[in-house]
């Protein structure tokens, strides 16, 4: 504040008012500071610098008051200096309260974040347990599906085996049918042959009977009608 010592009285008043208002605004910024502590430290450093300037201006005003020739003006300036000192002390008290409130708020915020972190860890743990349980359930479901598919495959194999046996039975029956068909055809041929032979035998018997009757008639004719 070397420059402040050389300024006129009016300028000194203006500087004191300016720094007072800036300190009040900075104290409000500290009170509203959400953190972290590094931000609060920066604000406090700025406030300290403003208090240093304000103190210098008050000291300069006090020095000017002491140099006044008129006692009345001197006393008036000294009362003004005293008022500025009281205002500065009030600002310092407000500054300390704002720091205390800000630190409490930051501590509470950090505690909340810590609790949220614990809740997050607990939630992640619960989520992991849920995922593990879900994975176990999925594994059991897959094992159940695998067992079901194995049973289905076994049933399919049994069905295929049954179809194969049925196919074999059908083929055997077809072979037997073919054999029976050959036997039936052979029997039909034999029956036809026997029918033909029976017809021939009947014809021969008829011819033999006719021949016999003709012979008998001839003999009777010779015996009974020799003159014929």
UniProtKB/TrEMBL annotation:
Pfam families: Sec20 (PF03908). It is a single-pass type IV membrane protein. Residues 134-224 form the Sec20 C-terminal domain. It is found in: Endoplasmic reticulum membrane. The keyword Transmembrane helix applies. The chain crosses the membrane at residues 203-220. Keywords: Coiled coil, Endoplasmic reticulum, ER-Golgi transport, Membrane, Transmembrane, Transmembrane helix, Transport. The keyword Ribonucleoprotein does not apply. Its main location: endoplasmic reticulum. Belongs to the SEC20 family. PANTHER family: BNIP1-RELATED, VESICLE TRANSPORT PROTEIN SEC20. This is Vesicle transport protein SEC20. It comes from Willisornis vidua. The lineage of its organism: Eukaryota, Metazoa, Chordata, Craniata, Vertebrata.
């Amino acid at each position: 504040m070397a420059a402040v010592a050389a300024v006129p009285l009016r300028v000194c008043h203006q500087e004191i008012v300016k720094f007072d208002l800036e300190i009040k605004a900075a104290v409000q910024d500290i009170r509203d500071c959400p953190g972290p502590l590094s931000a609060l430290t920066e604000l406090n450093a700025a406030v300290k610098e403003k208090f240093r300037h304000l103190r210098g201006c008050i000291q300069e005003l006090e020095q000017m008051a002491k140099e006044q020739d008129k006692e009345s003006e001197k006393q008036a300036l000294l009362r003004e200096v005293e008022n500025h000192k009281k205002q500065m002390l009030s600002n310092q008290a407000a500054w300390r309260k704002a720091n205390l409130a800000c630190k409490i708020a930051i501590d509470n915020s950090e505690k909340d974040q810590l609790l949220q972190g614990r809740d997050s860890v607990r939630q992640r743990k619960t989520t992991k347990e849920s995922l593990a349980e879900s994975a176990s359930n999925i594994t059991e479901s897959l094992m159940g599906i695998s067992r079901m598919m194995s049973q289905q495959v076994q049933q399919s194999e049994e069905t295929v085996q049954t179809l194969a046996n049925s196919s074999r039975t059908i083929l055997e029956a077809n072979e037997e049918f073919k054999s029976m068909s050959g036997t039936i055809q052979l029997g039909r041929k034999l029956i036809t042959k026997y029918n033909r032979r029976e017809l021939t035998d009947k014809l021969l018997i008829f011819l033999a009977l006719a021949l016999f009757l003709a012979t008998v008639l001839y003999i009777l004719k010779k015996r009974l009608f020799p003159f014929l």
